[in-house]
Amino acid sequence: MEASPTAILKLLLPKTPFILKTALAHTLSLSPTASKWDLRTELTINIMRSMLVPGSTPSTISKNQRLTTKDPGVKGKMWISKVSIPVDSDDDHVRQLVLDTVDSMSTTPEQKATVYEKPASQPLEAEWTGYRASATSTSPEPPNLSEQEKYNNLVAETTSKVTTLYFHGGAMYLLDPSTYRNLTSRIAKDTGGRVFSVRYRLAPQHPFPAALLDALVAYIGLLHPPPGSPHAPIPASEIVFAGDSAGGMLCAALLQLLLQIHRTHTPSDPSSPSLPTVKWHNKDVPLPLPAGLALTSPWLDLTRSLPSLTSLAHYDYLPSPSQTLTHRWPACPAWPSPPPRADLYCDGGLLLHPLASPLMALDWTNAPPVFFSVGQEMLRDEDAVLARRLVQQGSVIRWVEFEGMPHVFAVILEGSAAADRHHEVFAAFCSDVVVAAAAAANKTEGQGLKSEARLVLAKSLKDKDMDLKDITDLTDEQVDGLCNDGMKRIVEVFEARRNGDEDAVQRAML
């Protein structure tokens, strides 16, 4: 997100003593991260950490949303074309498919007993992003162009068939695709393709599975454009799901949703395999799997229960579980919800539903290739567990771990050598996976993708090979136990507060 120099100065001026102390400790190699971080990283992460620790007078959810969802406008080397995907008011098949799948995957007593808010279907707002080579970093958006003309100009500058379906981060309740334009235009430039960014519904006003429904509508809208759409149908073999943090969680949940739909599909002719279909704008349309997923520091466990939340906190800026347990959101129009619930994103009984916390999904058979870019961050364990699980079930995985780097470092430390390296390997995966998927779809020979893992060493950025089998020693049984304990703590605190125990605390989201 962009901010004026005056706003930045007002923010940082009171922190001058803290900044000087941090810089001195780093220069004298007295900080625990001095051997891994340069001075810029040390200052950035420590300042963010000090700002994100829940304070005695926290902002409301409503205020945070207002501050983080403002459209910064369009300028620079990018094409932006805003679009809307209409929902057919005569049928509700896509919505019902999502709700039926959520219900069919509710297997525990808590999940089966939970009565959750069922989202309505609604038109989806989104925007196309492309690279505008002839512009400068300060060029304004060309005037007097329709959204269709902007889209046509965007497509004219593409050099590949890569279409990235991007879901932004922000813990499911913050941010907006418009605040990600610098990132999505970078992806468009690096891949030579185009990016479709989705304005999915935010919690707590729209709890699970509203965002998941929006994600599926976005994907179907790319595959099968409704009347009036600027784009032609895009083959699944050219589409890569991508996202950071909570957006990465939505990518994984969308893939698991599609895999479950495929698992439960019964072909009309058993001798002739077919794709599952759904009625969309009065047509039965197929639901293929995408070419792949490109995940940046994906958040996969709503309960935040695995060991790296503590063991790697010194490399990260996110509040720790112990800090968020003492946090109380001030009342506002957005929160607490009516009726109250234990979590901003979903009801307490659904915290470990495999479509809410994809870490709890055990079956990933037939998943397309998946790319992980992670730091040595607080979410590392959950990402490593999923990566290993995918490999064990036959999927192709590219795991790139950056030594000593924090959560979503490529956005936080934009312009750094590590961030540039992330963008390089991210774009290479998107390009490679689309080429491989196209070859497979056309039954032509192409170089197959292979699983690989590497550690990018701090400062030198040299690669060190890793074994995917060894990226975590956590077993599925241990993960299940830790996450169930985490869910119980969250629900117990919520019930204590609801029953009038003022000493109990309300859990805040990531």
Automatic annotation (TrEMBL):
Pfam families named among the record's database cross-references: Abhydrolase_3
Give the molecular function GO annotations: hydrolase activity
**Domain Alpha/beta hydrolase fold-3, which positions?**
165-410
Where, by residue number, is the active site?
A: 245
* Superkingdom to which the source organism belongs: Eukaryota
Spell out the coiled coil positions from the record.
none
| Family of this protein | Belongs to the 'GDXG' lipolytic enzyme family.
Q: What is this protein called?
A: Alpha/beta hydrolase fold-3 domain-containing protein
Question: Which species is this UniProt entry from?
Answer: Periconia digitata
- List the lineage, top down: Eukaryota, Fungi, Dikarya, Ascomycota, Pezizomycotina
